[in-house]
Amino acid sequence: MEVFSMSPTSLFFFFFFSIYLIHVLLRSFLLSYRRRPKLALPPGTLGWPYVGETFQLYSQDPNIFFSSKVKRYGSIFKTHMLGYPCVMISNPEAVKFVMVTKSHLFKPTFPASKERMLGKHAIFFHQGQYHSKLRKLVLRSFMPDAIRTMVSNIHTLALDFLISLEGKSIDNTFLALKTYSFNVALMSIFGKEEMKYSEDLKSCYYVLEKGYNSMPVNLPGTLFHRSMSARRQLLRIVADILNKRRWQMKLDGRDHHHHHPHDLLDSFMTDKEGLTDEQITDNIIGVIFAARDTTASVLTWILKYLAENPTILQAVTEEQEAVMAEEKRSLTWEDTRNMPLTSRVIQETLRIASILSFTFREAVEDVEYGGYLIPKGWKVMPLFRNIHHDPDIFPDPTRFDPSRFQVTPKPNTFLAFGNGAHSCPGNEMAKLEILVLLHHLTTKYRSVSKRTI
Ligand code: HEM
């Protein structure tokens, strides 16, 4: 039986058509290959299989590890840490590319334990529409226009905090200051009325935070397990606050969607697209996480630098005394806008201490930058501290010199609050609570170094 047959003419055409097709395909392949030369990975070493260079990182000061790599390979280099191949970047243009102009190609990434502790709906883990919505709600509570009404409450919290320390000897300044930053965070989230929950919230949160960097093994007795049950307790307290607030809103006849939000919880509850209770709670825990240790840490470094630089401390004290020269009254928002030297001390501390030395992103697809390939799935770490300590950007970088901020830093060189899509929405709030505490410290106590704190 004849299954398949072709006439000689068809065979001839088939043969030439095949040759033509192969020629076209080969040409387009060669052209595209020539147009897109195979990109090289950034310079650097990946270390041992699996562990990479994790031991090198942890066996020395991480800052020395990074700066010696920068010296050797330049401002973009590859390494392998904590189980992931990474590209480190430490020049302002590369940071702008990753965090601002092409931020959609680099998603934020965190260890699994942190995501489960904070809650999967928290702002840090998202991109796109949900992230923009949350950012809008957080920003409207922490923009200058919103926080100017909080000055008198922060003023009271700062005074109460300092009075509570009087006569006590303080072993750990950072731990003490965490109480202040925690109270300010709670006030900005829940308003003054809900401060009665603060002790319960605090004790749950303290257990929860211990598990942030733990192994995510949820077995009785593990740190992770204890933290997860503290989280559940925290959820119950927040649910209670939410219910009371809804009830109060109904009693007051307040419109859920249109009234002007008083605090972050209000802002979350009055979103017309609606956040679920779980989304609200995850983001409340997230904001406490973002606000508390960061601000307390910066305050601790400021106290250290002021104690080491008596001339600057004297000038700050004079500036603060001048704010209240004429009368005894509560601090106002306008007063806090009139503290240029103290503000520069905050900026210089943020630069020199670089409390967030770097952040993590992950390439969502293969990305080309500066002639190098950043492969999909690789972590990308903008090294803020290296930029803040680059002598070409900040001359004599280890010297504490607030006057350098008399000139505005060039774009993408001062990254204490990040930049772009995920930059810190609480930066004005952080500066405000630091200014208020410094005001009371310098005007009401004789000397930063000899005082109990
Ligand atoms: C001096 C204190 C603070 C410092 C140094 C700081 C620093 C930062 C940095 C560098 C980022 C960006 C991280 C990244 O891009 O991966 C960030 C994000 C964030 N910060 Fe702050 N922060 C401070 C205080 C605060 C405060 C007081 C709040 C809230 C009131 C806050 C809320 C947030 C939130 C919600 C994000 C995530 C934003 C997003 O993913 O869109 N921070 N912070």
Tags for this model:
453 residues; alpha+beta; Uridine Diphospho-n-acetylenolpyruvylglucosamine Reductase, domain 2; Cytochrome p450; 55% helix; binds protoporphyrin IX containing FE; (+)-abscisic acid 8'-hydroxylase; oxidoreductase
Record the SSE blueprint:
Blueprint: H1 8-35, H2 54-58, H3 62-73, E1 76-81, E2 84-89, H4 92-101, E3 106-108, H5 112-118, H6 128-142, H7 144-147, H8 151-165, H9 173-190, H10 198-210, H11 223-252, H12 264-269, H13 277-308, H14 310-323, H15 333-336, H16 340-353, E4 361-363, E5 367-369, E6 372-374, E7 379-382, H17 384-388, H18 427-444
Parallel strand pairs: 2-7
Antiparallel strand pairs: 1-2, 3-4, 4-7, 5-6
Helix pairs in contact: 5-11, 8-9, 8-18, 9-13, 10-11, 13-16, 13-18, 14-18
Bound molecules: protoporphyrin IX containing FE (HEM).
3D architecture notes:
- This protein is an alpha+beta fold.
- It has 18 helices and seven strands.
- α8 packs across α18 (427-444), α13 (277-308) packs across α18 (427-444) and α14 packs across α18.
- The relative contact order is 0.14.
- The model has no long low-confidence stretch (mean pLDDT 89).
- It binds protoporphyrin IX containing FE (HEM).
- Keywords: Heme, Iron, Membrane, Metal-binding, Monooxygenase, Oxidoreductase, Transmembrane, Transmembrane helix.
- Its cofactor is heme.
- Heme binds at residue 424.
- It comes from Trapa incisa.
